[in-house]
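Task 17 of the worksheet. Students: predict the tertiary structure of the chain below and write it out as structure tokens. Keep your answer in the requested format; marks are given for formatting as well as content.
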Amino acid sequence: MVGKSFILIFILITMTFSFFAYKPVDVVLAGPQMTDLEYFMDELKVIEDSTGLKIKYEIFSDIETHLIKNQNTNIDIALIPNPQGVVNLGERSIIKPIGQIISSEQMNNYYSKHLQQITISKNSNKNYGAFFRLFPNSMIWYSVEKYNNIGSPQFNSYEEILNFTLEYSKFNENLWCLDIESGASTGWIATNWLEDLIISEYGLETYDNWSNQNILSSESKILSSINSIGKLVFIENAVYGTNKRVVRKEFRNNYKNLLSEDVDCVFSWGGHYAEFYMPENKTFGQDYDFFKFPSTKSESSIVGIGDILTVLNYSNETEVVFNALINEEFGKKWMNQLDATYVPANKLNKNPIMNPLTKKEAELVMVSLIENSFRYDASELMERKIGADALWKALKNYIDMGKERAYREIEDITEELDTNF
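Model answer:
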């Protein structure tokens, strides 16, 4: 009898402690899987400790589709990986305008004009998101040893890159590794090259008009920029495996080959994603590095991508957490990690970054934000049938054709692309 009483008392005490220890979730945050998920969760814990709120992060492989299919969700804040998706959800009334929880003054202080504009619906004229983090694309990666061996050339323009490549290739081979194969998505890397070239050669206004589909790809400036890709890819002896390899070999090969003693290539033109495919036994700064793609029309300009915080349910708790996530003080612990990849979108954020690669990226991004010369990946802003299909195919076909045929048929390529506009 004593034993049974003891068990009963133990159960009652355990239930009492469990009841008082339990705290329901105040804010549900949802979004994609992250490379730095552990550090992000640590930052959410900082917000919990400072506010007394309990936050839950739910991971979805395609958060936009999930929200469309599950409109009676308990999610309060969603992290969406592209502005077009944000506007789409806003126009469907699945997410709410953010003007109720963040003032226009805050938005102007925190964000560049471009980052504000691209989450505003042209139909409702309402803003549905605030950027959380950014990833730069406009970079030339190189092998430090090979780069030093060829004299550590400095480039102030794409023209200088082409001239150096032409001279180098008269006596040497394979200066560039430019593989872009990516299954059904082959061509997306070439769209990044085109975006860099449009800004470099014709400036931000032309880039904006093209990304907004106000001008066609057959317009002379865009056509010329496509041909500028060919000016590099079609240089004899310049590209490892020639243009035929470029569209047939997976892009991840570039970084293994870049740092291989058995492959000559010194440079590869790519974005932030390259850092994730560098050989694990190689070190940034010692074995590989990058410089920003040189732009003559807008020196500080960078093209990139990012993800955006959106609101599904208004509440005081949601407002507190949302504002904590975009605040310039957010990310102190995260950015203090030696392998962290977080680049804040808030141009006021001055938290020290310990990862030297991320620090170099962030410094370039911050200058572009302050000067409003950061531009979102145009192919992500266009209608998906163009930016995520027709444009990829057009550039893949252009590169595969080779010099003579591509230059001869460029107008046919762009006219076919424009039928999708």
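Marker's comment: Strands lie at 27-31, 55-59, 77-80, 130-136, 139-143, 267-270, 288-292, 302-311, 374-376. The two ends are 82 Å apart (CA to CA).
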